[in-house]
Amino acid sequence: MMALLQRVSQARVDIDGQVVGAIGRGLLVLLCAEREDTDECADRMLAKILKLRIFSDAAGKMNHNVQNMDGAGMSGDLLVVSQFTLAADTVGGNRPGFSAAAAPAEGRRLYEYFVSQARLRHPVVQTGQFGADMQVHLTNDGPVTIPLQIRAGA
Fold it and tell me: Is 38 a catalytic residue?
């Protein structure tokens, strides 16, 4: 499972001109399920995202996570967007291949599982819509962008 995290001051997802998910300060999570991924991969990815210390403390050091952004228990928001193109293979030729991405039905299942688990463990979780043509708007804070990958069986 792959994710690209962007620390944001705000983000939203529009579909056909309508806002379907929006957050304030927190993390935009672009999420990609790969062919061998399992529920355990999704659980491990979520645990990593929630504990990753990428929010600054008073001294400007990245010491806080999205569940404790200010050191005083204030949690940030999550916006989780499906993004199969993270699995792009660009080694051969000029057109990316996506054979490493999970099949659509399994990708949807893992995405929905991830979101359901996130909603159990975090107070504010917004989403895009799996498989939709989405426009993602964000203000990257920092900028801070972190790639993550969790391998099945590792």
Answer: no
